[in-house]
Amino acid sequence: MKLSKLLEGLKYSLTAGNTGKELDANAIEISKVVNDNRKISEGDLFICIKGANFDGHSCAFEAAQKNASAIVIEHDVELPENCEMAVIRVEDTRYAMAFISAAYFDHPARKLKTVGITGTKGKTTTTYLIRSMLENAGHKCGLIGTIEVIIGDEHIHAENTTPESFALQEYMAKMVEAGCDCVVMEVSSQGLMLHRSQGFIFDIGIFTNIEPDHIGPNEHKDFEDYMHCKGLLFKQCKTGICNGDDIHTKDILEGHTCEVETYGFNEGVDIRAINLAYIRKPGELGVFFDTDGLIKMHAEIRTPGKFSVYNALCAIAVARHFGCTPEQIAPALKEAKVKGRIEMVKVSDDFTLMIDYAHNAMALKSLLTTLRDYHPNRLISVFGCGGNRSKLRRFEMGEVSGKYSDFTIITSDNPRFEEPEDIMNDIETGMKKTDGKYIKITDRKEAIAYAIDHGEQGDIIVLAGKGHEDYQEIKGVKYPMDERVIIKEILAEREN
Questions:
Q1: Which residues pair with 151 in a beta bridge?
Q2: CA dist., res. 315 & res. 263, Å (int)
Q3: Which residue has the higher pLDDT, 178 or 51?
């Protein structure tokens, strides 16, 4: 592949090594593109990426020694004397990598209808809802998100919510190859800040909601920066679909370049939820509602609360742009399930048990206050907190559970290199600020068994924090631990 093709649309200078001699990009052949120095071979284009802990620019000398055809840099590098390797200088190598990767994989996004979702909560659930609807209407839809990447029948474990641009373009190229006609993906604020989703224009960009999160070292310096990064999506899409009820929507859309539609409960939005009714059956919680505005239909979802309605409204708005009818949308909404996101697990006709990823105070409070609307006999929380993370999260989660649960079972999550009991004691500190009743059980399986054994008629039991995770990380080792499997084991033991 000609270097000139890879650099289309980018501002750059191209010189031979340290000589300052200008080169012609049309005269340089590239065998492959890499951003990992361990994968450099003769004829490659190596992109030097500056990360939090390692700067790829330190490998420029190595790239020359391995006879790479070219490197991409954003600051000065050390090269061998009389080096003739092509050096491409850009303002930001991450930004450049997104466009180079898109060209390298022959612009797969141009062959797909692309949907990107950003927001603090609801991204994962909404991607699955949208995919369910589109597949039900006859589309073949890829998915990229926090839990996994789905390409046809292939499910790939996800490392990041939004992959690095090279991996993202590679996934989309594989989707095209697999016959997909569309893709729905989560677009994190980090992904937007680090240009992972650059190199193409989304057909549809979505904003679900925003609250302070991901603020700290190596993330966002403050809430304004977090909002700014979320808002970048709406300068990179054709149509923006936004939560019209969120007080920050106006800030998110500042400087937007797209057409805008809104959804929500308030008057004035383009698609509005009306006539809400809560569903409560043995082992099942949900909502009925109707929509008014751009699309009129009756919907049923098998997850609880208003935030589930927001997710559904958003998915309905997207499906409308694909020409889906209410008859195609309604059954997909009803049947869609997301692993570890308010996932109901039937264990008894007496009480309801669910698994959810809520792993910070904000998410836990949102979940528990939603479940309160279903008037449970008792609301019971089972959770722990991750080790080697902020202690503040532990205090906050303990306090939230103490306030909004009737009973809390404090247990272990991913202790990592800390002692589980130390983490549990920190959670207890937050609990003691409230009048909430609680018990501490270190072993998570024993904690879940205690909750099931003591479940009463009308209780709602929440296993929070693990969600889709199927492991427990202890002292640097990830041990298999899936709460669904644990529940089956407990029920089998009780039968015997």
A1: 154
A2: 10
A3: 178
CB-CB contact of 187 with 223 (8 Å):
no
Task: Let me know whether 92 and 117 are in one domain.
Answer: no
Distance of alpha carbon 46 from alpha carbon 72, whole angstroms: 6
CA separation for the pair 334, 185 (Å, rounded): 21
Are residues 300 and 389 both part of a single domain?
no
Structural domain of residue 489, as residue ranges? Answer: 343-495
Question: In what helix (H) or strand (E) does residue 293 lie, and over which residues does it extend?
Answer: strand 284-293
| Residue 431 and residue 371 in contact, taking contact as beta carbons nearer than 8 Å | no
Number of folded domains that form the chain? 3
Same domain, 92 and 129: no
Task: Report the run of H or E that residue 193 belongs to, with start and end.
Answer: helix 189-193
SS3 label, residue 447: helix
- Between CA 415 and CA 422 the distance in angstroms is 9
Structure tokens at 113: 């209808």
Binned at pLDDT 50, 70 and 90, residue 337 comes out as confident
Task: Among 50, 72, 104, give the residue marking a domain's end.
Answer: 104
Separation between Cα atoms, residue 424 and residue 371, nearest integer Å = 24
Residue 40 shares a structural domain with residue 153 = no
Calpha distance 440→425 (Å, rounded): 9
pTM of this structure = 0.90
Percent of the chain with pLDDT over 70: 98
Please tell me whether residues 158 and 287 are part of one structural domain.
yes
Q: Which residues of 149-173 are buried (b: 16+ CB within 10 A; e: fewer)?
A: bbbeeeeeebebbbbbbbbbbbbbb
